[in-house]
Structure formats: structure tokens, C-alpha cells
Write a structure and sequence with these properties.
It is a single chain. Helix content is about 25%, strand content about 10%. By secondary structure, it is α+β, with helices and mostly antiparallel strands. The chain has one domain (about 20-145). The protein has a four-stranded antiparallel sheet, with no helix packed on it. Strand 2 and strand 3 form a beta hairpin. Helix 3 runs antiparallel to helix 4 (about 75-85). Residues about 1-10 have low confidence and may be disordered.
Length: about 160
């Protein structure tokens, strides 16, 4: 049984295909707007078998560059929260989304002066610029802006706890 596009109750998926930049700016200003990705990465099969949205490679850096750094619709800390702790909270991932003892080491180090997306609808397989280091579960997966061969990621499931009153 599928509920709202998911195989478990809860969660929201929203895709905007015909909205203006003004609409996106308004969405970004909301303190409940979390930005998280659940997309496949680069693979030969993706390149030949189907359309790949440029957001597969550029959503996070577009949020940082366009909405926080260039247009100043939101602050850089607000954007980082929308990419880290808020999605972890929404998805009930208690061990992710913050840098603290006992948390998984999922960390992205970027240069605010150079961070930007390069992916387009015509050339979606373009890595973003300005991403210096990415750790997934404490293992480097991007070093000096280049992907490594490491694949320490895993499928995450909601970490359900007691409901709050």
C-alpha cells in the first residue's frame, strides 16, 4: 500500500514544475522549508536510460548561492539549517543534522566565495563548484572538490521514538 507516494505514512513530497523565482523565494523564507534530496547519483545507467533533473547535482549549492549568498532571500545559517538539522528533524533522524558528540559525521565544507551549481537541464551531470570536502559517516567522499570512490552511505529509516505530548 502506498500513501501519498510513500510506502509508510507520513512525510511530504513536493515538486514544483511551473513556479517562478518569486514563488521559490517565498517558499525559502518559511522556517519550515527543509531541503533534502533523495536522488540517485551519477552512473552510466542514468546517463543513457532516463532524464536526470539538474537538481540531482545542484540543489544544495543552488540554495546556498542563489537564495542565501546572491539574492539574500535567506541568511547563510538559515540555508544551512534548511539543508541539515531541519530535514533530520522532519525525518526523525536523531543521529544526524548537527555537529555534536554521538552524531554521525555527515559534514560538508564549502567555500562561500566559490560555491555554485553548474548542472543544467541540457547538461545535468555537472558537479557543483566550491565544495572542498564531504564526509559521509566520517568517511571522505569528496576531497579537494573531487569525488572519491568511497561509498559509506546507507539507506536511512525514520528513527521513531516516543511521541511528544
Amino acid at each position: 500500500m502506498q500513501l501519498n507516494g510513500f510506502d509508510r505514512p507520513g512525510g511530504v513530497e513536493w515538486r514544483a514544475f511551473a513556479v517562478s523565482l518569486t514563488d521559490l523565494e517565498e517558499f525559502m523564507r518559511k522556517d519550515y522549508t527543509a531541503v533534502c534530496l533523495d536522488r540517485s547519483g551519477d552512473s552510466p545507467a542514468l546517463r543513457r536510460d532516463r532524464f536526470v533533473h539538474p537538481g540531482t547535482f545542484g540543489t544544495s549549492t543552488r540554495l546556498l548561492r542563489t537564495f542565501a549568498l546572491d539574492r539574500k532571500v535567506i541568511s547563510l545559517p538559515f540555508a544551512i539549517r534548511a539543508l541539515t538539522s531541519l530535514p533530520a528533524q522532519v525525518l526523525s533522524l536523531a543521529d544526524r543534522g548537527r555537529i555534536a558528540e554521538g552524531m554521525k559525521a555527515d559534514v560538508v565544507i564549502f567555500d562561500p566565495a566559490t560555491v555554485r551549481d553548474r548542472a543544467t537541464y541540457f547538461e545535468p551531470f555537472q558537479y557543483s563548484e566550491g565544495i572542498e570536502l564531504v564526509l559521509t559517516n566520517g568517511v571522505p567522499v569528496v576531497v579537494a572538490g573531487k569525488p572519491t570512490e568511497a561509498k559509506p552511505g546507507r539507506v536511512l529509516e525514520r528513527q521513531r521514538g516516543p511521541r511528544r505530548p
